[in-house]
Design a protein that fits this description.
Growth Hormone, Chain: A, 2 domains, 16 helices
């Protein structure tokens, strides 16, 4: 914990936290404005606009991750971060104008810009961690980053929804976006210099060719690529759950918007708790020991979430938070979501640490960029599969059940991450126990 307050970690943590918060402040304010004002006033289809917004945010990860990885390997990463944060201030100024004019075009352009911002910052932040932290601090650093990211997502989502619908919401949200971006830039100025790992690298301007090349390079190391697949699977499961929270609460739990926020809060806090527990369990060792067990736990609680959801009947009015919490079965749903998230935190932190630790120093940012590309593919795949299941008349709990069952297969597959000696030890104990 001592390193958390040092200049080699705290400025990066604050910069990342504020960036993730601003992403979600903008996204949720845009969703709420489109859903409750612009679509109503113009007769437009809110769901199409919201889906378009989500797609525009993900698109830059496909387009620019390879370039982002190259830049982060070539140039000083701290200097690049400051440039990116200056660009963020400009993007948020554009978003503020978009909110004031209630211009969907400007707002979607700003959201695409923040997707570009996140695409270029991702390889930098994960390459900076092993550059500034010792090996025995790397797991803890990732735990703090993951916990902070989900809490920032929660805070940004809540504030975005609350501010935009206030009487002077346009002014409030525009001011908040600019202030958070400015604070992020000020924090980035404290990040210590971090020279690029390959200053002589020639930037390949061919986006598609370079994207395929970094994916091929990542596949060259089996364990690194398994980590990338495991991380991407986590984002598939997490994005499926979070994307369906609102309809799950409305159509299955028969509760109001405040309960959506409650579920998001429980899930985000659970990720933070799991990240902390992972660090305590592994004591700073960069190992995948508990990853398969955590994956199995995600499936177990996911299956129970399906059965817990079946006990909610119909009601003539949407339940508030107090009314929802008065129901004993509601606590079972919350417990399942919380424990899935705790398991997710234990699952994801070692995978990031292993990926960073095993990545070649000269190519580390490009490996992380490859991870971001695969993450984006899995998240888009999650959205497509969810739409397909819903089109086949699956209920939302049914979608959750299918994800939990699929996760069992993934848990078996990622057992390959365990060191051979640990697998032999576990097998020996099982045989000995059965005798």
């Amino acid at each position: 914990m001592a390193f958390f307050w040092t200049g080699r970690f705290l400025p990066l943590f604050v910069t990342q936290f504020l960036g993730a918060m601003n992403d979600n402040l903008l996204k949720n304010a845009l969703v709420m404005l489109v859903t409750y004002r612009i679509a109503v006033a113009t007769g437009g289809n809110a769901q199409i606009l919201v889906t378009l917004a989500a797609g525009l945010f993900i698109l830059p990860f496909f387009l620019f991750s390879a370039t982002a990885g190259q830049l982060a390997d070539k140039y000083d990463r701290a200097a690049l971060t400051r440039i990116i944060k200056i660009v963020e201030i400009s993007i948020m100024a554009l978003a503020s104008i978009g909110f004031y004019a209630q211009s969907v075009g400007l707002l979607l352009t700003a959201l695409f810009g923040m997707g570009v911002h996140s695409t270029f910052f991702g390889p930098i932040k994960y390459a900076l961690l092993p550059q500034h932290l010792a090996d025995d601090e790397l797991l803890s650093g990732n735990a703090y980053i993951e916990a902070g990211t989900f809490l920032a997502i929660l805070l940004g989502t809540i504030l975005g929804g609350l501010l935009i619908l206030q009487r002077h919401g346009i002014v409030l949200i525009g001011s908040a976006l600019l202030l958070v971006a400015l604070a992020g830039y000020l924090a980035s100025r404290k990040i210590p210099a971090a020279a690029g790992s390959e200053p002589g690298l020639r930037i390949n301007p061919n986006l598609w060719a370079e994207t395929w090349r970094i994916l091929d390079d990542a596949r060259a190391d089996k364990q690194i690529f398994l980590c990338i697949l495991g991380i991407s699977w986590f984002w598939l499961v997490g994005s499926t759950l979070i994307a369906e929270f609102a309809p799950f609460v409305r159509d299955v739990l028969h509760a109001g918007p405040a309960v959506v926020t409650l579920l998001l809060t429980v899930f985000s806090v659970g990720i933070g708790v799991g990240s902390y527990l992972c660090n305590r369990l592994l004591r700073g060792r960069i190992q995948s020991t508990y990853v398969p067990l955590a994956a199995l736990a995600i499936s177990a609680f996911g299956v129970d979430l399906y059965f817990a959801s079946r006990f909610f009947g119909t009601t003539n009015e949407m339940l508030g938070v107090g009314q929802f919490l008065d129901l004993p079965r509601a606590w079972r749903v919350l417990a399942d979501l919380f424990l899935m998230a705790v398991s997710g935190g234990i699952y994801i932190v070692p995978l990031y640490a292993i990926m960073q630790h095993r990545s070649p120093y000269e190519h580390r940012a490009r490996v992380i960029a490859a991870n971001n590309v695969v993450n984006a593919i899995f998240m888009v795949g999650a959205a497509v599969l969810t739409l397909l299941l819903l089109a086949l008349h699956f209920t939302i709990p049914g979608v959750f059940l299918m994800v939990a069952i699929a996760n069992l297969l993934v848990a078996v597959y990622i057992c390959r991450l365990l060191p051979d000696d640990l697998l032999r030890s576990l097998a020996h104990r099982m045989v000995g126990g059965s005798g």
